[in-house]
Amino acid sequence: MEPVYLTKLISQSNGWLSTRQATIAENIANANTPGFKAKDVEPFVSVIDKTRLAMTATHGNHMGTNSDMPETSKVRKSDS
Questions:
Q1: How many Å from the N-terminal Cα to the C-terminal Cα in the chain?
Q2: Contacts of 44 by beta carbon, 8 Å cutoff, 6+ apart
Q3: CA pair distance 2, 33, nearest whole angstrom
Q4: Are 42 and 19 in contact (CB under 8 A)?
Q5: pLDDT in tens, 14-27
Q6: What is the rounded distance in angstroms from the CA atom of residue 13 to the CA atom of residue 9?
Q7: Average model confidence (pLDDT) for the chain?
Q8: Average pLDDT over residues 28-57
């Protein structure tokens, strides 16, 4: 698995936003053209889903990886 580079992810997001803006502008410009059908781009969420990013623990003491972690405690309302 390769490391996740946030700047690369942001760059991909910006590229997607630019493409979507151009697509919407084209839809608006051609709205009155006979036979024109509006287009849209694939949602960025599905683009991210295709990259198969996963949370990975790299050390045994990371949260959620140690089986002897205490159970979560319940918060009680104070009487005062």
A1: 52
A2: 13, 16, 17
A3: 46
A4: no
A5: 998 999 999 999 99
A6: 6
A7: 77
A8: 82
Quote the CA–CA distance of 77 and 72 in Å, as a whole number. 16
Question: Tokens standing for 37?
Answer: 């059908």
Pair of tokens at residue 22: 């151009």
Residue 40 has pLDDT above 80, yes or no: yes
Query: Tokens standing for 29?
Result: 């410009």
Q: Are 41 and 23 in contact (CB under 8 A)?
A: yes
Domain boundaries, the chain: 1-31
With a CB cutoff of 8 Å and minimum separation 6, the contacts of 17 are 44
Q: What is the model's pLDDT at position 33? A: 93
pLDDT score at 23: 95
Q: Calculate what percentage of the chain has a pLDDT beyond 90.
A: 31
Pairwise CA distance, residues 40 & 23, whole Å = 6
Length in residues, the chain? 80
